[in-house]
Structure to design on (1196 residues):
């Protein structure tokens, strides 16, 4: 099989992102096909790397000629490969929706490629500082994307995102400083190997700093103030993209931190607490929300909480559940954001809009046979076999609340006469996303096997 | 470890971080918030640079005499962090300008903010 | 063959969905697809000890089927109970589709697609042999109903259906998880349960989850909204067919998985498990309240909806009592309700198709214009009110007997009152819709609507004459629960209290009829106008057409008595719960103040809490 250096996943769109203005000078019309082409090539690379990893195990690649731990290391693990594929598969699809639009195309396309590259970077990097840099690129790109609507709400949302993102990045830096101060290394494997030689206090401080910093990006409860405002302020396409790329990368980083990087006493209990808080507050806040994008943003928060709960179970089944939930959330939530236009739900009178939106809602509320169901089912089965009834009860209550507000969401779609405002390109995008949801839902076995591998690589033990 | 020598630096950086955080938390003016973010960043950067400090060491540049030199990694980190900080600040200022153009104010405590 | 069936169904869903512009073609394709479950049923008839001639079994379906999903295995297998309920659904379903071919004039592709999905889901539910399979197909069925409800476009219907659907799903899921925790397996046959409280909690949760679909009070709130605001053929299938799945689930888990003896170990009441007794009480209450509420309705569909709720309550009574007699009665009632309620809803659909009206006070005299529709609904009404010219009487008879046999002093009278109450509202349908002065000059419903109605009436008559055949059907089911079928011959059913004899019943009925007819002839007849009301000297100009109509405020005194007690009904209770949730919701929303400083304070607070937690710990 062809093998491809993972660095291409990052370098390729990054390079071509900066080439985009040149293309723009040649022909303004060429920018969008060009961007789509670059993103699709990246999808191809990601799928090849995914296949390589699932057949041959973790891929390591050192950059810039230095050997680790000094040089920067890329390491594509099982989970990283799944998420890299997910991000790079979905980002061109969401980009398709942009074709009907005439405005600010080159800057948007550049930022889009940039964020795709850097979110991919977060999931395949093997170096803490490298991860920080990718976080920052993702964040800066996302700030720009949020502000790209150039309305009052867009600027306001972007500003809130910038402030919290910067505070978060300061905390990540503090965490990195703490770790480096004691271990003199930033390589993930090195840190994981020698973390026990760090004094417990310092280890805990590093953990706290990092979880705060990453938690801002991963939309964890007390740190996620920016989420509703930024999603409400940004255009529906940007919101769609944000919910598939950066947030998934953030939650991946949290998982990495919890499982391999700094395993501290009580870390999983803390994650569980945070996850439940995030889940419940997100779902409850969405319950009375009239503004549709804001409602979907709260729902995103709730979903991220659920994913964190799944990770915090610290067991293989729940880990697989978390992967399914991530896939479901990335696909379904970007579908729903695309389907909502700016302030209303796309009309359900048009079957090419209504059926995808319906499938998206079903996947989010966990109906079979869609990925969200497999996620919730595995999570429940895992929690049931361990007898965590209180948590199951909370998750179930959250699911009911979710159903109530999604019912209202679906009702809003029945009102308008035509599918006004949803362009052909957006329709294409949501139809493809819905097809993906159906495929993953009907054939979970093809995700299950790599997901089990990912779980084993994080939790130890054979597959 | 000779962190005792660095105590003043710790105090300074902690103070900067605290001031920055305080500014972000209490100010409603966009520019003041951006300034506070800058302070916060600077505080963190100073802390990291200080960590790489080795008493009596030289700059980590290959000049034939590198028996004792500063740890280069924190410096590299800080350089990157500064670059990122600058770009974020620039972006924040651009957003502030846009906000000002749309609303005619750079205060964020108006009734009109998105909430709930 | 089952793989092929599922594939054909899924392909059918896509094809008819794409044929949205051609409703007739889509309907015909859907009709052919919808026949497959019936053929499967015929080919599986051996599980019921029925030998059919081979030309009826031309499709050969395997009796068990497995599909490996990687993370889990789907297991389907035909069982007597599944066969019985499949008989109800698979014979109702093609008729409903046939009806809709002429009912829909446009935009029907989505309807057929969702209907096929509901049937696929039901097919899987009835055959499922483990909890994963059951849950998957249950939810497929559940959300395809949601798709059909969305087509109706009514806010209350959508919100209440999805909320209660989720509540039901989560109750069932929670129960399944408890059973899994207890037994470590999902497969029904491998479960070894004991008399622990955990199992009791699980079965309670599961049964209350199914009660939502079965519209038992207080979980019925969604039903009137959905029944009255959706398309009629779908409502016929929902009320007639799909609501039975709730009772299928209750029966499967109460008697198939847990079993009668284990249920008894949590306490008994007059030889009936306490669990079953509470179900019977809930059922009796549902039967009573559903009937009373049905009497108060003016919208034909709402009336039928509450009547459905009431009639389904009887099934719950039977399942609760749990003796062979009661179970036979419950299954009989399920069968009758499937057919008569489907006929009534289809007739309502036909009436709407011709007149465009649902309000009883705006209708009248249609019996003269649509005689065949009228006669079909008349039979259905006989079955509903348990008048002994249809099998409805036999079912209620068995149920009453089962309750009397166990000396249920609370349940039995309520059942009887509800049974009489049914007369009140069916009379309203008869008088308000079909009898009286003709008010619309409409044609009879099209043939493709009449044929399904009349086919659906047939079982009601067949099982009147041969109630024993029905008892034969229940024998393998009861055998599975280590019970024996009640003694019977084709025309008679022998029970401990009394003997049910078809001939006696029919003769008694005909005798009464002749007597009534003589009474009718002995008095001079006078035709009375619908509007010929007693006005006590007030000028008729003050009243509009509707308030003058005889069936408007027909049962006003009755409503005056009962309305105060039903004013604060279950709907109010759920609204309060939702409002409480929304209070929490507003609280949670207030966290996001929109001020960036506050958000930073949260971050700092979180940091301080973490540090403080570490310092303390």
């Amino acid at each position: 099989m062809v093998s491809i250096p993972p660095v291409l996943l990052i370098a390729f769109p990054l390079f071509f992102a900066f080439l985009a203005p040149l293309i723009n000078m040649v022909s303004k019309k060429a920018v969008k096909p060009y961007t789509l082409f670059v993103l699709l090539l990246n999808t191809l690379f990601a799928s090849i790397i995914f296949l390589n990893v699932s057949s041959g195990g973790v891929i390591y690649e050192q950059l810039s000629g230095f050997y680790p731990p000094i040089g920067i290391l890329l390491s594509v693990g099982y989970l990283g490969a799944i998420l890299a594929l997910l991000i790079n598969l979905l980002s061109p699809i969401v980009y398709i929706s942009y074709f009907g639009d005439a405005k600010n195309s080159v800057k948007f396309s550049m930022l889009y490629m940039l964020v795709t590259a850097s979110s991919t970077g977060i999931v395949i990097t093997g170096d803490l500082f490298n991860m920080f840099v990718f976080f920052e690129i993702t964040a800066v790109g996302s700030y720009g994307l949020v502000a790209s609507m150039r309305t009052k709400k867009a600027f306001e949302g972007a500003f809130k995102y910038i402030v919290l993102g910067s505070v978060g990045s300061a905390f990540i830096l503090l965490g990195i400083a703490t770790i480096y101060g004691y271990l003199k290394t930033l390589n993930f494997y090195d840190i994981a190997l020698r973390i026990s030689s760090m004094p417990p206090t310092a280890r805990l401080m590093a953990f706290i700093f990092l979880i705060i910093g990453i938690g801002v990006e991963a939309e964890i409860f007390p740190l996620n103030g920016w989420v509703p405002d930024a999603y409400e302020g940004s255009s529906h396409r940007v919101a769609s993209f944000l919910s598939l790329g950066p947030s998934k990368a953030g939650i991946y980083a949290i998982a990495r931190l919890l499982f391999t990087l700094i395993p501290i006493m009580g870390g999983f209990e803390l994650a569980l607490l945070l996850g439940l808080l995030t889940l419940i507050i997100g779902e409850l806040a969405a319950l009375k929300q009239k503004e549709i994008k804001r409602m979907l943003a709260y729902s995103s928060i709730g979903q991220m909480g659920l994913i964190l709960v799944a990770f915090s179970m610290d067991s293989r089944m729940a880990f697989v559940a978390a992967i399914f939930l991530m896939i479901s959330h990335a696909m379904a939530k970007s579908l729903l954001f695309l389907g909502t236009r700016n302030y209303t739900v796309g009309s359900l009178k048009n079957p090419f809009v209504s059926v995808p939106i319906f499938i998206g809602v079903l996947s989010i509320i966990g109906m079979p046979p869609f990925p969200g169901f497999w996620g919730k089912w595995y999570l429940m089965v895992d929690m049931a076999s361990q007898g965590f009834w209180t948590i199951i009860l909370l998750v179930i209550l959250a699911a009911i609340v979710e159903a109530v507000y999604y019912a209202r969401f679906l009702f809003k779609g029945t009102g308008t006469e035509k599918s006004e405002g949803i362009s052909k390109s957006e329709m294409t995008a949501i139809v493809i996303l819905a097809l993906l949801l159906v495929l993953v839902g009907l054939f979970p076995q093809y995700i299950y096997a790599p997901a089990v591998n990912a779980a084993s690589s994080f939790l130890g033990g054979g597959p | 470890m000779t962190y005792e020598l660095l105590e003043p630096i710790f105090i300074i950086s902690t103070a900067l971080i605290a001031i920055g955080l305080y500014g972000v938390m209490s100010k409603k003016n966009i520019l003041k918030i951006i300034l506070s973010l800058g302070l916060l960043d600077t505080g963190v950067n100073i802390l990291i640079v200080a960590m790489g400090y080795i008493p009596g060491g030289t700059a980590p540049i290959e000049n034939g005499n590198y028996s004792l030199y500063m740890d280069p990694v924190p410096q590299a980190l800080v350089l990157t962090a500064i670059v990122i900080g600058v770009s974020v600040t620039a972006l924040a200022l651009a957003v502030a300008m846009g906000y000002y153009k749309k609303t005619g104010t750079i205060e964020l405590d108006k009734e009109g903010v998105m909430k709930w | 063959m089952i793989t092929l069936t599922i594939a054909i169904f899924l392909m059918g869903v896509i094809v008819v969905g794409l044929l949205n512009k051609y409703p007739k073609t889509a309907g015909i394709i859907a009709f052919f697809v919808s026949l497959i479950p019936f053929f499967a049923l015929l080919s599986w008839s051996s599980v019921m000890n029925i030998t059919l001639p081979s030309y009826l079994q031309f499709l050969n379906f395997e009796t068990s089927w497995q599909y490996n999903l990687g993370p889990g295995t789907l297991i389907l297998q035909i069982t007597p109970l599944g066969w019985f309920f499949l008989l109800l659904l698979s014979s109702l379903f093609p008729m409903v589709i046939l009806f809709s071919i002429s009912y829909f004039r446009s935009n029907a592709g989505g309807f057929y697609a969702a209907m096929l999905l509901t049937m696929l889901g039901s097919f899987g539910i009835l055959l499922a042999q483990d909890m994963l399979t059951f849950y998957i197909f249950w939810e497929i069925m559940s959300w395809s109903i949601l798709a059909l409800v969305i087509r109706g476009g009514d806010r209350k219907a959508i919100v209440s259906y999805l909320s209660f659907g989720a509540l039901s799903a989560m109750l069932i899921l929670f129960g399944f998880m408890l059973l899994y925790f207890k037994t470590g397996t999902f497969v029904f046959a491998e479960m070894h349960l004991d008399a622990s409280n955990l199992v009791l909690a699980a079965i309670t949760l599961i049964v209350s989850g199914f009660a939502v679909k079965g519209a038992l009070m207080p979980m019925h709130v969604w039903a009137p909204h959905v029944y009255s605001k959706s398309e009629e053929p779908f409502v016929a299938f929902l009320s007639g067919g799909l609501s039975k799945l709730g009772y299928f689930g209750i029966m499967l888990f109460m008697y198939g998985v847990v079993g009668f003896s284990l249920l008894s170990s949590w306490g008994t009441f007059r030889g009936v498990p306490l669990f079953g007794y509470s179900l019977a009480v809930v059922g009796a209450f549902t039967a009573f309240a559903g009937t009373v509420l049905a009497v108060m309705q003016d919208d034909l569909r709402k009336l039928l909806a509450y009547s459905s709720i009431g009639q389904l309550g009887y099934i719950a009574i039977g399942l609760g009592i749990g003796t062979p007699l009661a179970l036979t009665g419950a299954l009989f009632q399920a069968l009758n309700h499937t057919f008569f309620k489907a006929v009534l809803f289809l007739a309502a659909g036909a009436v709407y198709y011709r007149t465009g009206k649902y309000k009883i006070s705006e209708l009248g005299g249609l019996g003269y214009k649509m005689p065949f529709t009228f006669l079909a609904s008349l039979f259905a009404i006989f079955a509903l009110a348990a008048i002994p010219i249809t099998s409805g009487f036999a079912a209620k008879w068995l149920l009453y007997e089962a309750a009397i046999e166990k000396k249920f002093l609370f349940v039995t009278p309520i059942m009887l009152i509800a049974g009489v109450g049914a007369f009140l509202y069916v009379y309203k349908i008869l008088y308000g819709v079909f009898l009286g002065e003709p008010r619309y000059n409409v044609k009879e419903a099209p043939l493709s609507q009449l044929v399904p109605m009349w086919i659906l009436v047939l079982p009601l008559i067949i099982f009147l004459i041969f109630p024993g055949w029905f008892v034969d059907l229940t024998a393998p089911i009861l055998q599975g629960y280590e019970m024996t079928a009640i003694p019977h011959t084709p025309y008679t059913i022998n029970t401990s209290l009394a003997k049910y004899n078809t001939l006696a019943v029919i003769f008694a009925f005909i005798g009464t009829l002749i007597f009534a007819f003589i009474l009718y002839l002995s008095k001079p007849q006078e035709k009375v106008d619908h509007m010929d009301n007693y006005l006590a000297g007030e000028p008729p100009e003050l009243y509009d057409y509707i308030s003058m109509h005889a069936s408007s405020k027909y049962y006003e005194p009755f409503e005056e008595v009962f309305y105060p007690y039903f004013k604060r009904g279950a709907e109010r209770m759920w609204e309060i719960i939702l409002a409480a949730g929304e209070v929490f919701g507003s609280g949670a929303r207030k966290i996001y103040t929109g001020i960036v400083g506050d958000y930073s304070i949260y971050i700092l607070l979180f940091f301080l809490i973490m540090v403080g937690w570490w310092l303390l710990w």
In short: Residues 583-616 of chain C form one domain. The CA atoms of residues 385 and 420 of chain C lie 8 Å apart. Chain C touches chain A through 61 residues (CB under 8 Å). The radius of gyration of chain C is 26 Å.
